[in-house]
Amino acid sequence: MTQGRDGISLAPMGARRLMGVARRLSVVAAVLVITALVAGSAGTSYAKSSKKKTSGGPVLLNSVVVSNQGALFSGSLATFAAGSGSQSAPEFLVRGPASFLSVGPTLDSVSSLDSHIAVALPADFVALTAPLGPPVGCGPFGPTLFGTGLVELFSPTSNGKSAPEAEICSPNFAVGAPNTTGIFFPQGVAFESPFDGVTPAGHETLAVANEFPEVVQDGEICAGAGLTASALGTITEYDRSALAPGLNNIPPTPNNPVAAVNVFTTPPTAYTQNSSIGGCLTSLAGPVSLAFDSNGFLFVVNNAGKFAAAFAALPRFISVFQQDAANTPNPPFSTGDVFPLALIGIAGTETAGDVIQPVGITVLTFGFEDDLAFVTDVGDNSIKIFNPFTNPDPLIGFAFAGELVGTIHGGATKLKGPEGIALSADGDTLYVVNSKADSLEMFTDVPGIEDGGNISPTLIIQSGHSKLNLPVGVALPAFTPTPMETDGVLGAE
How many CB atoms within 10 Å of residue 428? Predict the structure, then answer.
């Protein structure tokens, strides 16, 4: 969700909101890439806000973290405590020069293990230096000097000018060093539940959605591979136990390198990019957000068609990948160049056209392969609700097309540019941020609204006290320490 200049962005919503100020991402570079596709410890403060105001009405049932892109140089992370009312200020507000937040964070995620906060930053300024890194920082990349971006991790009580505890990025990429981390214009981040039976005990996976690189096969753009006839972007995953304080220039785990093309050179040159999930079969098309369900399935929102009106025909859909199961004798092949388990909204299926401009996703799990996926759609200011593991595709058989089971939409919802979305650990409360209204909404009794409708939120936080400034992500710990019952299959105790 990086904001762009002149209406073009590498952000899930970015191009839709002109703010009358200089935006951050070069139009030329964005168009070049798409054209090629189509042709350490933190200084933690425990200070709290003195401007917490409640209205005497409904209040937040959970503490949530909101990432704000803000106007130029005003990005931030805001934590609203449980009990906050409609006029409340955030309990913690992180901003300032000690991190990259000022240049525009995208989606965030909160660990269910220790409530640490991860946020993606598609650093797109010239020759920026990572606050925790060496002078070369996390870029520049190519002759247009685009940094490849980074991910920052913050303590749950970070406040004010706190620095991140750790950063993940590949320094010196511009002079030919490999992109070790595989991070390239990251948009979405997601912590996998450490309690789902997939991740080994004592470990926690952090996944990152990278909108680039452009993946090639035998020197050519993926043509005819997968249903999208293209592959743009990768997913990288990191074992948090391997991350040290400060700058981490480490390969993803697992690591399955892909052949990529650098479109900023003349002629475009091929290079190797590290990844966990990437390649022609993945059918990735500009992944912008991620979510794990409580069984370890990884849900990905693809929205390559968001860059500009000229690329409106490019695909937007949801894909689902099954994770390797550490506790099964024959784990599924879920990393590398793999075909998705589900493709929702893809051309030629029953769900084709169900999403217009999908951005955020969160998943409610009832049991093994029994999920509801909630997807924000800025195209019609709605939340689409899908049953992902239904309707096997008649053409390929082994992938699901899903089913749209409900839409939350209408004037009563107050949805206006909905982007980030998150569910509470008990699955009963839904949180959404609206980038065009600078608001945070809470919907309760989620199992009762799965059919959608013109539903009023239980609470809206929207005031000058809130410090909400182009909010794009919302997150909270999504899982409890008790693995859900899965009938002895993946994720069972």
Answer: 16
Whole-number Å distance between alpha carbons of 458 and 58: 7
Residue span of the structural domain in which 140 resides: 5-475
Q: How many distinct structural domains can be found in the chain?
A: 1
H-state helical runs in 234-364: none
Does some domain include residue 142? yes
Could you give the 3-state DSSP secondary structure of residue 168? strand
pTM (predicted TM-score): 0.84
319 within a domain of the structure (yes/no) = yes
Q: Using CB atoms within 10 A of its CB, is residue 191 exposed (0-12), middle (13-18) or buried (19+)?
A: buried
Residue 44's Cβ-count burial label (10 Å; 0-12, 13-18, 19+) is middle
* Degrees, nearest 5: CA angle 429-75-208: 65
pLDDT grade for 346, boundaries at 50, 70 and 90: confident
Spatial contact of 144 and 28, defined as CB atoms under 8 Å apart: yes
Within a domain: 493: no
Find the CATH number of the domain harbouring 451: 2.130.10.10
Spatial CA neighbour of 450 closest among 404, 418, 411, 412 = 404
